[in-house]
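Dear H.,

Thanks for agreeing to be a second pair of eyes. The structure we're designing against is below in token form, covering all 429 positions.
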């Protein structure tokens, strides 16, 4: 090649490199010409870490709308600063195993059918009343505290990421260490005694949903703290990774884990979501991708009807709650799919089933345009708000048009700061 062409090639390569530098987002903490250091993008398994980073940059540059939303987030985080940490070992009685480090919860919809006596202190046998929560499940077990762990570290980690206030990160780290890491207070990585029924079962596979409906938010919180949060050390990070690998192994290989994964309603969807997120967070990308791909034929085809309804969830006394609840798992699973190259939103089943149709089925009630036409003991219109946001972000025109008509959840609409669907109504089980 002559000198002229070589020079032109060199110039072209230099120009191309310069253009690439302008187009590729900066991911390092190197300050720009004005002294601003962009934040790191967290490697979150559900949330889009690059989107969080971009949102943080917009906040740092004075975005007024985001600042208003941030006030709602920090208000939530501030509530948690003087609460916790919590530990699995402080319940009045240990799980039936006798090990105080084993998690314990009680089935929420089961009630005593007989008077409590000295000979029958529980009032057994217990009978099921679907959708009616027995208040005794919130005393003497770990279920209420794990909810506090999840909600607190989610709010605190996000609040730290967006504000830089060290107290948020340090308290989130303390909460995580106490529940999962410290030998004296840590939880064993199993759910052998979830949702026990007095005088009937010491634990059930169905109890896995105590974690599957929430724990992926903890995985995102850990990834956020991993970007350099004060009070969160390399040892903490390593210990949490070890706990997560053990928990994932239990979910995949234990009899309870296999039974829950085989469930054909929201329990199965949440099991897939939890396994996929844990796999991605612990480096098993192949398992994460395989789980999301499998959800097409295993979940969407049999669980979503051609009109977008979810027959197994409509059969419940809380049909609105469970229809929105199941879709939380679906849209979070779709978010995980984006990290592993699977477009779950774009999938169409043999009868035309899709996540877009399932969200569309909820839109009349979600926007207040029409009443929900199925049984529901306690209707909360805002329960669908995050799901509609997710469909809108995925490109659905009807969902985009519906967003301004959504009911704001209690505590404010945080979608702009944590764009992944969460369960917004409080009933559990």
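And this is the sequence the design step returned. I haven't edited it by hand at all.
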């Amino acid at each position: 090649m002559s000198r002229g062409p070589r020079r032109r090639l060199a110039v072209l390569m230099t120009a191309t490199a310069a253009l690439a530098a302008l187009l590729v987002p900066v991911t390092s903490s190197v300050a720009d010409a004005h002294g601003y250091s962009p934040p790191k993008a967290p490697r979150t398994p559900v949330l889009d870490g690059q989107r969080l980073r971009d949102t943080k940059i917009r906040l740092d540059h004075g975005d007024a709308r985001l600042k208003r939303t941030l006030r709602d987030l920090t208000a939530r985080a501030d509530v948690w600063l003087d609460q916790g940490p919590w530990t699995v070992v402080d319940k009045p009685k240990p799980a039936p195993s006798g090990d105080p480090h084993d998690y314990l919860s009680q089935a929420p919809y089961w009630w005593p059918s007989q008077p409590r006596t000295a000979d029958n202190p529980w009032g057994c046998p217990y009978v099921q009343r679907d959708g009616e929560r027995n208040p005794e499940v919130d005393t003497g077990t770990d279920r209420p505290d794990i909810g506090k762990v999840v909600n607190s570290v989610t709010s605190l980690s996000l609040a730290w990421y967006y504000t830089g206030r060290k107290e948020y990160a340090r308290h989130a780290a303390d909460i995580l260490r106490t529940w999962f890491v410290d030998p004296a207070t840590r939880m064993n990585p199993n759910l052998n005694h979830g949702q026990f029924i007095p005088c009937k079962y010491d634990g059930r596979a169905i109890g896995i949903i105590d974690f599957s409906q929430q724990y992926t938010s903890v995985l995102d919180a850990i990834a956020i703290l991993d970007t350099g949060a004060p009070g969160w050390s390399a040892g903490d990070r390593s210990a949490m990774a070890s706990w997560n690998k053990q928990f994932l192994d239990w979910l995949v290989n234990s009899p309870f884990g296999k039974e829950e994964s085989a469930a054909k309603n929201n329990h199965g969807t949440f099991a897939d979501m939890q396994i996929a997120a844990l796999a991605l967070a612990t480096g098993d990308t192949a398992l994460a991708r395989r789980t999301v791909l499998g959800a097409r034929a295993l979940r969407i085809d049999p669980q979503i009807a051609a009109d977008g309804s979810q027959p197994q969830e409509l059969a419940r006394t809380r049909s609105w709650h469970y229809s929105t609840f199941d879709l939380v798992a679906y849209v979070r699973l779709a978010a995980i799919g984006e990290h592993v190259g699977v477009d779950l939103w774009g999938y169409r089943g043999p009868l035309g089933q899709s996540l877009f149709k399932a969200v569309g089925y909820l839109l009349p009630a979600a926007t207040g345009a029409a009443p929900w036409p199925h049984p529901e003991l306690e209707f909360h219109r805002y329960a669908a708000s995050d799901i509609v946001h997710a469909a809108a972000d995925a490109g659905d025109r009807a969902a985009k048009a519906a967003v301004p008509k959504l009911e704001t959840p209690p505590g404010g609409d945080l979608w702009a700061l944590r764009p992944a669907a969460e369960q917004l109504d409080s009933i559990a089980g």
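Two observations from my side: The chain is about 50% helix and 0% strand. The first strand starts at residue 110 and ends at 112.

Warmly,
E.
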